[in-house]
Amino acid sequence: MRLHLTQCIISGCKQSSGKKALRSGFKVGLIVCSLFLLVSNAAAKQPNVLLIMADDLGFETVESYGGRSYKTPNLTRLAQEGIQFNQAYATPLCTNTRVQLMTGKYQHRHWTGFGLLNPDLKTFGHLMQEAGYSTAIAGKWQLQSYDPPEYPGAEKRRGIGMKIQEAGFDEYSLFHVAHTEDKGSRYASPKIFQNGQFISNTENSYGPDIWVDFIADYMTRKTNEERPFFMYYAMSLPHGPINPTPHSEDWKDKSKRHLQALKYFPDMVEYADYLVGKLIDKVDELGIRENTIIIFYSDNGTQWNILSDLDGEWVQGGKGLTNNLGIKVPMYVSWKGTSPEGKTNNDLVESTDFFPTLLDIAGKPGLASNEKVDGISFYPQMVGKKGKTRDSVYVHYETRPGVEKDRFHLERLALDKDFKLYHDGRLYKPSEDIYEEWAILPEYDSAASYAARVKLQKVLDSMLPYQIFDPDAVPREDTWLSYQQGFSFDDNSACIVMEAESVAYPRDESWIAQNSISGHTGSGYIRALREQHEQPTKGIMTFVLNIATPGEWIIDVRHRHDHYDSAKENGFWMKIGDQAWKAYHSDQSEKAKGWEFGIHEHNKPSLPVSAHLNMSAQKIQIAPMFEHFKLDRIVAYRSHRTDCAYNLSTPQAKFHPWFDYN
């Protein structure tokens, strides 16, 4: 609304006559004009933005998307008071999504390494500053330095990412602002760098509480300022370590605050929701809800060893994977009085879209004219209009170089609302194949899948393949394998490492491969779908060991239990050579610790090998005893397991890093 000053005066003058009346009308006109100008300024003011991005929160954990395992009333509140986007996608890991979110560019245009943001780029913080906003960030940074000193090639990458002081934010309160080994805790007794200095006396504090208090204070101070604010809350919840929250019973015992156990995951999800509720309430309390846009999003799927009930079906978290449990995420937009309430939107949205959307909100879309932006603004959809919509989402997913990331390899894929196509030709229909186990072959294409294949292939072809990292900086080669061809497990330095998902096995109802990157070892496991607690009958996997070193060999089985019933027993059958089948059980107390070796020193089987059996083939057979038993790998060794696992002469060592799990 705009009204020229002379119009205001004339409007006032028309209400009286004569000189006295003219003076009176002049005063009235000024008053009326001032009122109009106030209204005009209020109407023209750019809205505040509160962008919240959860860390490792898959759509299956959220009630409004069908999740039944956790209570998320405040996310439901956002859905009721705004718009729920049902087709929002991210990349499978946090750095990949966050750099796309902050730059609007696909990964292949900027990638430096995991945990790094190229300092030559402009973030949405920079451009929102240019658009007239006060800017702030809280939560996790992890974009300046990542690799520890001992990691091969680390000297080329340590500390080369963007510093928070140069990232386009006027204020900040963050975890992991420099080297990984110095990051400290993000939860109990956190290490937080806030506006140029580390916070002291956090011994009895919880990191997410500190950040929400920082955000609340920031919004309070900025509410009455002329400039609007852009507040980006890069949540740490519910990312591991899976620790107690202040709402957990164990939080009362200070000695238990750093305990790691899957039983705390529901507490972490629900605490994340609780903090979202606190922020919504603060915006309401400040009286700025109608001029503040609240956006909620997540950077990738849930941690891989978390089971959640999705509409009555127990599903596995997909973090790190490109199936929809890894890349489909919850998303809400609430702008009270402007965005429709209680609506759902099925348009495709991806992480690059936030950059242009924020500039549209600011009324400054032209600021991105000098940037190569891949995103498409969803601002029209936010206000209930039909904007430009995506025909597809593109994902360029490369994690290397980076510690613990060299076991992955490049994946390029494109998807629409029904199908997903990978660069190697695999086509899936995720709604019918959530774990993407059964690729649709071209010879079995329907009219719909053929049309999708043609369309999505054009998307992939439009994105030229890039060599986005220095091969010399990647310590292990990217070797493509096929489990259908089996794998040769040979004796190298008296050690054999067997990857379960790399072994040819019968695809009957006993097992399912999950969290496995196709053709790549060290990236997944096999989970049992049925119980065989009386005796092994089906789904028996056979590992053939080619042994050269004589002597007594020890066998470790890396496994865990993943049943939603925490009281469920865990165990498996194993047969060595011609020996009889034997049952092995894990201690119930160990299920929450992650992967465990269920065969302990007092109960480890030995595999006697005579000196004259040079390179003899020995068989190990495994069968599940209970449903949801998960088999990852088997290690056969003569010396200490860690010694041989770290020995790079072991063929499997080049596929993944090793750690001492004992």
Automatic annotation (TrEMBL):
Organism per entry: Agaribacter flavus
Annotated Sulfatase N-terminal domain residues: 47-363
Protein name, per record: Sulfatase-like hydrolase/transferase
Matching PANTHER family: ARYLSULFATASE FAMILY MEMBER (PTHR42693), ENDO-4-O-SULFATASE (PTHR42693:SF53)
Entries under Pfam families matching the protein: Sulfatase (PF00884)
Family: Belongs to the sulfatase family.
Gene3D superfamilies reported in the protein's UniProt record: Alkaline Phosphatase, subunit A
This protein's UniProt keywords: Hydrolase
